[in-house]
Amino acid sequence: MAQYLVLWEFQVHAEQLAEFERHYGPQGSWATLFRQAPGYVETHLLKDHSQKLRYVTIDRWESVDAYRTFRTRYSRQYEELDRLCEELTTHEASLGEFSD
Asked: pTM for the complete prediction?
């Protein structure tokens, strides 16, 4: 079954690395929020070895519909967590949404 992947890139403040990993890792705050929604599969946190402050997240969903439903139903919680985590990074960019 094809799955839906959402990728983000982050540049993290050097003094916030541990806190960033705590929120964005597979057991972090974001994954905890995602797990409340049907269709969430898993989160991967990738650390760039050549740029120590650069990370990529991959959030895997069963389908685009599952992801879109999550974003609609949990929009308030998503925005609150996004605001909380804003100070951890110097840059955040969507790398896109993909099917595998």
From this structure: 0.94
